[in-house]
Amino acid sequence: MEPAVRCAAAPVRNHRGQVVSAISISGTSSRIEGDHLRNVLVPAVLQAAQGISKELGGPAVKGMQNSIRKPVVKRNLAAYF
Questions:
Q1: H/E element, 38
Q2: Which phi and psi angles does 20 have, rounded to 5°?
Q3: Residue 14 neighbours by CB under 8 Å, 6+ apart
Q4: pLDDT at 62 over 80
Q5: Which residues contact 26 (CB under 8 A, 6 or more apart)?
Q6: How many domains does the chain contain in total?
Q7: CA atoms within 13 A on the CB side of 23
Q8: Contact call for residues 23 and 12 (beta carbons, < 8 A)
Q9: Which domain holds residue 13?
């Protein structure tokens, strides 16, 4: 049986605003608590993706925290989109 996994991901955009890549972090739920994911890891992933996008000439994203959505759970896997 696979352990439950927690994950956060964010798109990386180019100068045209097109998604050209993504950055993510994941780990088992026994090692990543939900509050730590929401309060520390998701903002870090969003900030990293925004920084890479900026280097590529991508558009600025205002209110990155507003892009955090409810978790999507499927077959013991959770991802924030």
A1: none
A2: -115, -10
A3: 20, 53, 56, 57, 58
A4: no
A5: 5, 6, 7, 8
A6: 1
A7: 15
A8: yes
A9: 5-80
